[in-house]
């Protein structure tokens, strides 16, 4: 990356393990899609009085050369699994991976997803 990873954490103490998980996910995206110029990750913990089972909100913004920034926000319908911090982080990067695959396929003129042909 041209600029270092920006990790913004609100509501919890940042740990080395969390930074490592985020860094590994960014490296996977960079390895798969080539040059990522910048990446910003924001993690927001639930309020102090809502810690039990409340979802973490993880957003990822990725900049590619020659493209606008791609943003991945938390899903609107959050499920109980989003209450686990590691699941929420990995889920955000799975959604970022999917958006990047669709963006790359679109720029190369291929369909974003391969669908089976209908049976005649």
Any overview of this molecule?
There is one protein chain. The protein is an alpha+beta fold and 120 residues long. The protein is 34% helix and 19% strand. Strands 1-2-3-4 form a four-stranded mixed beta sheet, covered by helices on one side.
Gyration radius over CA: 16 Å
The spatial strand order of the largest sheet comes to 1-2-3-4
Mean pLDDT over the residues: 82
Broad shape: globular
- The total count of helices amounts to 2
End-to-end Cα distance, whole Å, is 48 Å
Q: Label the structural class.
A: alpha+beta
Proportion of residues in helical segments = 25-40%
SSE succession: EHEEEH
Concise description?
By secondary structure, this protein is α+β, with helices and mostly antiparallel strands.
Task: Give the arrangement of secondary structure elements.
Layout: E1 6-10, H1 16-33, E2 38-44, E3 57-63, E4 69-72, H2 85-107
Helix pairs in contact: 1-2
Keywords:
alpha+beta; 4 strands; 120 residues; four-stranded mixed sheet
């Amino acid at each position: 990356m041209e600029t270092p990873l920006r990790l913004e954490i609100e509501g919890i103490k940042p740990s080395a393990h969390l930074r490592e998980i985020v860094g590994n996910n960014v490296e996977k995206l960079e390895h798969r899609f080539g040059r990522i110029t910048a990446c910003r990750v924001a993690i927001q913990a639930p309020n102090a009085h809502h810690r039990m089972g409340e979802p973490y909100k993880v957003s990822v913004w990725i900049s590619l050369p020659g493209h606008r920034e791609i943003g991945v926000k938390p899903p609107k319908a959050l499920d109980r699994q989003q209450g686990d911090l590691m699941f929420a982080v990995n889920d955000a990067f799975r959604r970022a991976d999917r958006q990047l695959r669709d963006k790359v396929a679109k720029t190369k003129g291929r369909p974003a997803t391969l669908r089976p042909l209908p049976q005649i």
